[in-house]
Amino acid sequence: MSNYVLFIVIIIYLAALFFIAFVAEKNSKSKWVNNAIVYSLSLAVYCTAWTYYGSIGIAANSGINFLPIYLGPVIAAPLWIVVMRKIIRISKQHKISSIADFISLRYGNHRFLGALVTIVCLLAIVPYISLQLKAVSETFQILSDKTSYVSTSVYDDSTFYIALLLAVFATFFGTQATDASEKHKGIVVSVAFESIIKLTFFLFVGIYVTYILFDGTEDIYNRMSQSENFKSLITINGFEDGFNWLYTIMLSFMAIFLLPRQFQISVVENVREKHLKGAIWMFPLYLLVFNIFVIFIAWAGNLTIGNPDQAEYYALLLPLQNGNTFLSVLVFLGGFSAVISMVVVATLALSTMVSNNLVIPYGFLEYFVKNRPERNAKYIKNIRRISIFSIIIVAYAFYVNFSFELSLYSIGLMAFVIISQLAPSFFIGLFWNRGSSKATIIGIITGLGVVFYTLILPFFIQALTGSDDWVQNGPGNIAALKPHALFGIDFLSPPAHAFFWSMLVNIFSYVSFSVITKGNYRERNYAEMYVDSRNFTDLQDSALVWKGEAYVAEIRKVLVKFLGETRTERALNLFFRKYNIPPDTQMADARLINFSEKLLTGSIGGASAKILISSVVKEDEVSLVEVLKILEESKETIARNKLLREKSDELTKITNQLKEANEELLEKDKQKDEFLDTVAHELKTPITGIRATTELLMDDEDDMPSEIKAQFLKNMLQDSDRLSRLIHNILDFEKLSKGRTQLNIQKKNIRETIQKTIDSLHQIAEKRNIQLIHSNKSDFYAQYDEDRIVQVLTNLMSNAIKFCEPNKGKIAVDYKYGKGFLEVTISDNGKGIPKQDMPYIFDKFYQSKNQNIQKPEGSGLGLAICKQIVENHNGKIWAKNNQKSGVTFGFKLPFK
Amino acid sequence: MKKIIIVDDEPNIVMTLEYTFKKHDFEVYIARDGSEALEILERVVPDVIMLDIMMPKVDGYQTLKAIKDNNKLKDTKVVFLTAKNKASDIEKGLKLGADKYLTKPFSVKKIVSEINELIAS
Fold it and tell me: What's this model's pTM, rounded to 2 decimal places?
């Protein structure tokens, strides 16, 4: 395949990536950009060319040893919910934009520590990037048919141009905002896209090799099992190999947290904490799927190509040698995707660290302070751009000079071992508040020294002198100092060996020096914030203990230098409003200091932010004891406030309940008054009649006609009856409604009860020539107080008689079984009840305006008493007008 | 002859009043509620109308208002005769324009003298 065609393919692919990143950046609020799937896929930036090509190399030459690199992250993933969430929370709160900031802030925003972490990252990652370039370069050469091609000058080398293209891409999307803690949605989405591409194409070639070139997995296995060293390829070889496995798993476990590109994607670019929940299963799944075909491609390569030196590129060579150029190009693009995503994210992360932790705090800060704000933003961006370019160029230089000697796998592991030197200060510091900055620095440097001696130095000596005498025999032939077998531990692979010793020394230094030395108060302050992050999230800006003198105006000036006028104003306004501080306050407090430091951290890194702010404030030394005391108090205040709030809520609730109860009582009182009023009124009516009639009869001078006299006497009798009925009903109603009446409940036949009632009303009905119909002949037994139910029935039926027209009236009584109740209905063909009266008919003293006969028949309590009786039976009473004429009253009684 | 309309929905009470006023040379008209009273008022202009307050359909207050609105009845005296005897009720009745507020139970003799006094004034 022609060199140029391949280049055009690369350019088109890069253009597509540009386009995707661009669209994502434009739609940065869309749910297509912000979701758990994109987040999980972007985490797969972990899978670089090393995964894509390197794993196959290892699988071909040493069997399943490629696996532990993926087991570490898989084991780590469930822990994310605890550890990663904590890291994300702390980082968001402090606007942390890199792992260097994260570690240095934990140890009191230590400038040197930030720089040291940056250097460790550079040492690990630059060779790692060069390894990626090597992969692109070699696969490019394989595809363009120039396997023996060696470039004569830089300008003639395709890798150089590819490196340049990558740099441009990373620069363009990585430095849009000055604030490095802001999200790079374009990059994240393009990385996620590349994760799909590399996985898909890798699976393509896996399927192609396994099922088209061979007859499936079994075929490859069977053929492979005939080779002589087969057993060593599928087993872990004993105790020693077991240790290698263990250490490699541990290494990759740490790497998934510590690699700058992983920190960038998983922490800095995390949009929502809850996306972690998706990632903890999607990401391991991705790794698993990626590794399905590794072993089969490797074995297929061993069987058909059988050249261990080319094992890393079996995935490319297999389709190529079988004439499938198209698939080869796809494989190449998959590998290229893995490279681009790694290089772009890694350089982005590194450039942030270089600018915020190396360049700005060591030299540029003073320059910035004098500068105009607009230019500062530009300078910061330029520093990052130059950093990106330089990192890639240095990586390229490293590649040109050294990478011929190394496999993808070994450089990858070397990077892991170096980066793992950050592990003690990172992990232990997250959970142990005693860890101090001095101890961290000593730990990292000694650990790094061990790595240098056991891993890097041998590599350089071998690369430069071409002899491994020094490695084989140790310096001065001292066996205990053999770089790959310190103190006789000779069973570990060089990376595992370096990891073991460096970690031992590192952790020992870190822990012992932390215990011996006492960190300063600032360190301890941040330590508390990290270790107890949940508690301190509540404290927010007041979590920083600070004493001293500072003017708001001075701080404002510094902020304006880096954020510009508008952003500073907006931020300060927000701050003042949040804490309810008058905007014209002159003296700054600890909260403003902390807030301002955080604001600046995003742009220039934690260390520089601290230096800048302290340059305009006069800070008083605070003792460690004081810091702890103040923190404890703040925490207590929060707890107390919470308690107070709870108590206050409780009181409010009780007050409301009291208010309700009081209102209810008042309402009851009012009802009682109204009731008494009505009772008095009702009683007065017959008394008035009796009183007036008595007077007339008494004063009669025998001129009253005898029939009138008789009528008056009859009236008096009627009124007296009405009066006694009223009194009886009022007392009855009162007793019923207070529940003071004991019901005499017995098993009775409802048919008989109804008949009994009808018999007693027979005469009255007959008088008005009204028919009482009771045709249901079935016996039905239920539990009720018969006398009371007779009272209800009598009331309802005599009401019906009252409302029916004489001679035409028909009253039908019926009953039926229901589900757990007995229902009795009394319907008539009278006038019915006016609609407006319907809701009130069961109220006491409510008399319908539609009565057919004149007063003084009713007491106004009949239906109210009926209702009480039915309800005392746990039943229900109701009334509704019939469709044609009249009304139906009914009641239900429950039975067991 | 003096004319009186008695408006009450309690027949036994009405009967005593009717007998008494007839005996005292009144021309007596009976209404069971406000609407019946207003019907009578269309053809009769009485000297006095005696109103109960709590009555079905049109109550005492509404009837009083209708009388006050009718210019033809400006000389008719309105008397409330009711069981409502709270101070607030009495105040309300007089405020609405009743000429007298009498409460139940009552003395027949006293009612007659009150009414006569009212007509004479």
Answer: 0.62
